[in-house]
Structure prediction request, 371 residues.
Amino acid sequence: MLSRASPLARSAFRSAQPVARRAYAGAPNAAASNTPLFLGLAGLAGLGGYVYLQRNPSIGAKAKSEMHDAKDQAKSKFEDVKGDAKSKLDQVKGEAKAATATASTAAAGALVKDAWVPFKLESVENYNHNTKIYHFTFGEGNEDKSRGGEIPNALLVRSPEGDGEVKDAKGKPVIRPYTPISGNDQKGGLSLMIKEYKDGLLTPYISAMKPGSELLFKGPIPKFKYEPNQIDRGLCVSGGSGVTPMYQLITHSLSLPEDKTKWTLVFSNVTEADILLRKEFDALAKKNPDRFEVKYVLDKPPKGWKGETGFVTPEMISKVFPKGDDRVKAFVCGPPPQVKSLAGPKDGPRQGELLGAFKDLGYMADEVFKF
Prediction:
């Protein structure tokens, strides 16, 4: 049965072999043959687009313009985001700086707002027949501290507890507010100018103090938040020892290089000898002739007196400080009768209704401040 195949069978076998090989070899060529076709079509499309744009330049220009507009919008949005980020960063930096400054001021301040602190009397300077300047030291270890607080500010004073403590008729400690005449940034101590009233309770005690004795202090107490250039002109009207807040406010303003506010001080006293801080005010007027002027008013002027006399009246105010269309503010501090006649009485610690001379002159409530 192992005979050789017939010629017909061999021929059929040879004819079938090429068919099998062609069927196998032809399978990959079906996919590979599409690549040249795609490349050709892409080239034709690009060429067609080029020819189309060449024949229709307005279409190309429009597309180019829209591309530039999109680019500009993207750039603008980027700048806006960049600006917002910078603004936020500046805001955070400003808040951090303010917080640091506040913490630094609190750390440097020798006074405590809610507690009495003893300061030792270092020296006493006689100023005139009834007024002295008292220099207090913050004590050892506090040489780099200042009293702190915004200008203008005051502080509270009382005598130490125990024997010799000054009390009122109800047995309560006598407490009085005073405005320092020393600079707010003075380190190591502060100075008070105090006029003695013989029928007073606390001033006779202070007048009898000797260097080395102590007085209790609390504060600072903010009065009016002053900001440079918030007004164009300021008028200060004071009487007697009520001039100390004016001195603090005016010297502070004149010390600020960026502040252009102009000041007029109307300072009334009984006699020429009663004028406090006259040397200092005259020096300020000479140094700042374009920003500060002072008018002294006396009830009992000496012979040859060339200044104003009598009470401070609406007519006198209009004469030395004519009110215009600019931003002005009047500050008042003095004996209660004087404050009442000029601007109406205070309502305790509150300002109270505006009355008196300034109301008659047309001032508004927010244009007058009573210390």
